[in-house]
């Protein structure tokens, strides 16, 4: 029993979520990388700008002169009140306002503030290290100061008329908030593009998920995997041939059973090939053409000849019900191919069982009558008569089959089978007899093929005898075993009282020449009429022999049927019989079997014999004036010379 699965997210939903997560991660990483690079670039630009402003301020003659004066002033005099409103303070404020800088700070050679946006900090030491600038160098950096984090630059201030004496330094900074704001302004288009990309990715994912769901018919990967495993197990586990076709006629499935029945000598891979170009038998194309429309969703079963086999072909259109659309979704077609020989063998086995069952019922009825007789004699105190009657029964033995010389058969299986067939023949007014040449020294080892072949020949012979014009209807069977070092061979001969095989292939039995028959030329003057007539007679005899041979072989052709003619070679129905006198277990000969049908019986008999190295042939076609057809069969490997055990009996 299939266990209930824990509900889980559908595969298409998982794919959607996964793809959205991947697209989102890519967009976020791209946007983050762009923001970091943009921040770095804007910071570098701010530092370069601060350096340019600081150089401009430091190079001013007024700034150099005033800075040199204040640097020489005693440090205790550099108070906020002394410095506030001074020339440096005014110059630095103007430069700050002009460049939108966060601050412009000027210090002396000790790092004391001489100009600062916050007057309260004038005269105090700067919060960041000024040593690089005071030693004559320039530097740029992003640091935190009293006014917050900024991108700043520091340059030295030289004394007037000197390029080496440092009297102070100029520090200019731009707020990092302005850098972030610039970065955000630059990243808006990137964020917009990222959002659009994310939306397009989501739409593409939804479309692909819908497409995937349609292609997989709504099945989950686990279900598809299970179906694939089940399909492989089924296709390899059946003997029948299975061929799957797509809607365009391309072969999608071709199992080993199909190869064995349709192309046993081919190693070609048929999967992916169009059926029309595959070189397979034409009967497959007929089966598929019949299921192209909804009105003909099924085809067959029908019998076809493929090589030396007769196969049953059936086809069915495969459609899947779709709850979202009207009608059903066409998935393709499936062709089933079955070996007709195996079906025939099973049918003959069943016929043999039915015949034996009929014989046993008849024997049971006869023995019941005998027991009733004994019981009646005992009830009326006629014990002596009952004892005599029992003695007569013991001397006569069991119920005798209505078959002449059945005792010639030493094999119990053949005796029971032919005895049952004799009951069937007797109910149809036909006498079944065993030929005087019958000799069985061993026992049957393969009753399946023997039943199929002998039963088919007997059924045809009984039908031919019933349909014949002879007042005495009979069927004669001769069985002979031959033992060689290679194994035992069984020889069968079946003859009947029918009218023989009809020569319907090239001429009829009424002496009417068929179309195209050669006319005998009339004798001309001066010629020997007798010699011409003799030549014509010889030619006619040769033609008749050829025609007889052709007719004999024609009846073994799959699909050929003589209909209701009186011939044991007929695979048709034979003559009419009275339903009131026919045993229920005996099929109506006028009703064709939908499975075994007409036109394949003798073909299968020959195939069964040839499959084991034997043969079935016509020994005598027969005539209405003499006897019916005589069929012979040679079956190697079905007889063993070992003594028959009690268990086998």
UniProtKB/TrEMBL annotation:
Residues 445-639 form the Histidine kinase/HSP90-like ATPase domain. Keywords: ATP-binding, Cell membrane, Kinase, Membrane, Nucleotide-binding, Phosphoprotein, Transferase, Transmembrane, Transmembrane helix, Two-component regulatory system. It holds the Pfam family SPOB_a. Residues 138-147 have a biased composition (Polar residues). One of its GO terms (biological process) is osmosensory signaling via phosphorelay pathway. It is a multi-pass membrane protein. Its main location: membrane. GO terms for cellular component: plasma membrane. GO terms for molecular function: ATP binding; phosphorelay response regulator activity; phosphorelay sensor kinase activity; protein kinase activator activity. Its EC number is 2.7.13.3. It comes from the Bacteria. Residues 534-553 have a biased composition (Acidic residues). Residues 129-149, 492-599 are annotated as: Disordered. The chain crosses the membrane at residues 187-207. It catalyses: ATP + protein L-histidine = ADP + protein N-phospho-L-histidine. Residues 505-518 have a biased composition (Basic and acidic residues). This is Sensor-like histidine kinase SenX3.
């Amino acid at each position: 029993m299939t266990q209930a699965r824990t509900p889980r997210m559908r595969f298409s939903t998982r794919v959607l979520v996964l793809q959205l997560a991947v697209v989102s991660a890519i967009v976020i990483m791209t946007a983050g990388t762009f923001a970091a690079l943009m921040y770095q670039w804007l910071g570098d630009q701010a530092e370069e700008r601060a350096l340019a402003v600081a150089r401009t301020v430091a190079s001013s003659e007024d700034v150099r002169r005033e800075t040199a004066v204040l640097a020489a002033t005693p440090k205790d005099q550099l108070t906020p009140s002394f410095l506030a409103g001074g020339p440096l303070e005014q110059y630095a404020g103007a430069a700050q306002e002009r460049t939108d800088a966060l601050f412009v700070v000027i210090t002396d050679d000790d790092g004391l503030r001489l100009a600062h946006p916050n007057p309260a900090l004038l005269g105090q030491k700067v919060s960041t290290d000024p040593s690089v600038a005071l030693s004559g160098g320039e530097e740029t950096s992003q640091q935190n100061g009293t006014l917050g984090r900024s991108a700043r630059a520091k340059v030295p201030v030289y004394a007037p008329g000197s390029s080496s004496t440092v009297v102070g330094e100029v520090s200019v900074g731009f707020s990092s908030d302005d850098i972030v704001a610039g970065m955000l302004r630059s990243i808006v288009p990137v964020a917009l593009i990222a959002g659009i990309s994310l939306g397009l990715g989501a739409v593409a994912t939804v479309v692909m998920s819908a497409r995937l769901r349609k292609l997989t018919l709504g099945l989950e990967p686990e279900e598809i995997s299970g179906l694939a495993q089940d399909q492989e197990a089924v296709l390899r586990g059946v003997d029948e041939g299975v061929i799957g076709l797509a809607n365009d006629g391309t072969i999608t499935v071709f199992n080993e059973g199909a190869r064995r029945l349709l192309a046993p000598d081919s190693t070609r891979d048929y999967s992916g090939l169009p059926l029309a170009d595959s070189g397979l038998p034409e009967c497959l194309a007929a089966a598929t053409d019949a299921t192209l429309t909804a009105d003909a969703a099924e085809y067959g079963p029908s019998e076809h000849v493929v090589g030396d086999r007769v196969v049953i072909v059936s086809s069915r259109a495969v459609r899947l019900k779709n709850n979202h659309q009207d009608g059903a979704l066409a998935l393709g077609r499936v062709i089933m191919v079955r070996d007709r020989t195996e079906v025939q063998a099973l049918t003959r086995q069943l016929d043999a069982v039915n015949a034996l069952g009929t014989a046993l019922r008849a024997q049971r009825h006869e023995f019941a009558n005998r027991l009733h007789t004994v019981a009646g004699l005992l009830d009326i105190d006629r014990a002596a008569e009952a004892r005599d009657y029992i003695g007569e029964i013991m001397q006569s033995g069991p119920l005798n089959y209505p078959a002449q010389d059945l005792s010639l058969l030493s094999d119990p299986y053949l005796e029971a089978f032919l005895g049952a067939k004799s009951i069937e023949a007797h109910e149809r007014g036909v006498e079944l007899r065993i030929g005087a040449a019958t000799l069985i020294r061993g026992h049957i080892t393969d009753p399946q093929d023997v039943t199929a072949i002998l039963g088919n020949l007997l059924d045809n012979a009984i039908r031919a005898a019933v349909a014949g014009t002879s007042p005495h209807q009979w069927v004669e069977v001769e069985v002979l075993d031959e033992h060689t070092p290679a194994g035992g061979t069984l020889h069968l001969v079946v003859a009947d009282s029918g009218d023989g095989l009809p020569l319907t292939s090239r001429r009829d039995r009424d002496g009417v020449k068929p179309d195209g028959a050669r006319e005998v030329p009339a004798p001309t003057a001066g010629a020997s009429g007798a010699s011409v007539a003799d030549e014509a007679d010889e030619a006619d005899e040769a033609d008749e022999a050829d025609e007889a041979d052709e007719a004999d072989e024609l009846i073994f052709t799959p699909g050929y049927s003589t209909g209701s003619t009186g011939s044991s070679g007929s695979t048709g129905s034979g003559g009419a019989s009275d339903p009131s006198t026919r045993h229920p277990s005996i099929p109506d000969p006028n009703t064709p079997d939908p499975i075994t049908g007409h036109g394949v019986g003798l073909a299968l008999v020959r195939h069964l014999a040839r499959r084991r190295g034997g043969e079935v042939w016509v020994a005598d076609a027969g005539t209405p004036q003499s006897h019916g057809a005589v069929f012979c069969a040679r079956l190697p490997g079905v007889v063993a010379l070992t003594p028959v055990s009690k268990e086998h009996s």
